[in-house]
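Re: your question from the hallway

Yes, I did run it. Sequences:
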Amino acid sequence: MMGCSFRANSRLVLALAVSALTLSMAGCGTSVERMDTAEVKDLSGAWNDTDSRLVSEEMIQDVLSRDWLPEFTRTHKKKPAVIVGEVLNLSNEHVNVNTFTADMERALINSGKIQFVASKGERGEIREERKDQDINAAETTRKPMGQEIGADYMLKGTINTIIDTSGSSQVRYYQVDLTLISLADNVKTWIGQKKIKKFVKRGNLRY
Amino acid sequence: MRLRRAIRVFLPSAWFLATVLLALSGCASYSDSFSVIENDMAAQKFGVALQAFEKQRYPKRDQVVYLLNKAMLERMSGDFAASNRTFEAVKASVDELYGVSIREQALSFAFNDATRSYTGETYEQVLVHLYTALNYLQLGDLIDARVEALQVDERLREIAQKIPESRYTEDALARYLTGMIYEEMGERSDAMISYRQAYEAYRRYREKYGVTVPNYLKQDLLRLSQQLGLSQEMRQYQKEFQIEHWMNAEELAQKGELVYILNDGLAPIKREQAANVVDPASGHIVRIALPYFETRFTPVSGARVAAGDVSAPAELAEDIGAIAVKDLEARIPVITARAVARAVLKAQMAKAARESARQQNQNNAGAAVAALAVEIAGLVTERADTRSWLTLPSRVYLARLPLPPGTYTVKVDLLGDYGQIVATQEYANITIHQGAKTYLSPHWIAPNVTTPRSPR
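Structure:
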């Protein structure tokens, strides 16, 4: 019989081979789980949606609570018109800056205290359309050129990182600076800053 | 009767065991599966090569090396955006593979090194960032290229912590490109630091790989140290380089620049070198398989780049072939030690199986067959790990041409050892903007890149 003719040593060899085989064949199917967008889930330690949200929330709160806003409304008797300039990504990750500038734009417009004008990229397309209306649209519905609202302020910014690594531990420090610059005289009316610091420890063992 | 039954029960299971072991170990070595694609690349049919490559199936443990080659083929066929998506996937996979897998260690100890997940050699991990940056630069995306520049720095710092300086711990070309990116961004002090690091790295390259400091870098060091008012450093460079005149920052600011980077040929390919030795004590065969690098032929040893009425030579900026060979040389003692340890284990396993067969009834053929199967499996699973980033160029040449803003047709003569023209290439409609750099980084592979395999 197989069992009795096979001694411990050879049985061990077979067991080793079989267990190696099972180990190498492990794999799992896909699973999906819906999450709340506000839920914090850090996977790699890289810039993620939570960081983007935290930055935009803090910046909006800050920019709306400062003195420049009531002051402008008082002296000019209108809402300030703001344009989003470039938020430079000077970090060491390919960060998507559009998500938090869009977040900010939405929150600021909805606050009803600030007017936003189309940014440089968006303007081109609108002007194309106006040019097209000039030829093709009915007189009464035609929008004339040269009626755009000039922005009072430009929102610009940078994202910076400092990474400090030792072995499998890493400190990731992000700093987002946003500046509101008056287009009339280059005066910086507001500077917002948000810092995020993370300690990431990578596992020395894996499956 | 008993014998026949034993054979009937046992023979299939022994063969099953042997087949399983063979399947696990991956019988053909990785580099052997590449020859079809190599031929397409040599015919400069990169798109065809990419299609053929994408059809290849690969085990999960080869994912990184598969993606590396895919990304390179994508960039060769001109799809820089796709190439960068693949490179990002490479980075994610490498991150996932951080840490030691006990399962893979055990497998590699029992079978061979190729059963481990491939995470890329150190130089390959750095070059990922270099080529991602080049892709972004070709796409005109300076900001994202800068992100890669920072990642190069991060990666090199990580490597320097882990690996002794005698090995590959600095990448001169990556540092140099980083400097160019910073300078174009207007970050002059960062650029200066990178140029200095590149200079230091090139001085070490001279000893290790025979690559000298490119004249272009000398000009950059002089120009930038002058611009930053580092007069003492500038005078020192002047003395070292014996250069009296260079284009200063104001002159350069009036012009744009063409940066031509030639990726020439293909990096050396890993082959297997195996020794089957009869153990005099037991009379049984012991097999040890090790990888070695086989260089792939290229007739190019320089280039001349011309645009408008400006012409400049392309200088050797990185010898990836030499880096690869030296890196493997440094690791071969460890690889050998592992192979020897494995051979000992396999011999022990075979011996144990034989002895248990001997202790059985003499006419129990089943145990004898099983013992033989263990021994054969031990031999056939001993394969060298021949995985490497095969689509890297063998050498990289660099030329920089300051040009007045405008549109140019760039003509490149690839030159052989005696200055003879090997091939000529033309790039039409290359636009040069004032104060900016336009990058051109083609890959050229000689038609006869595949040398006949030398038996060893």
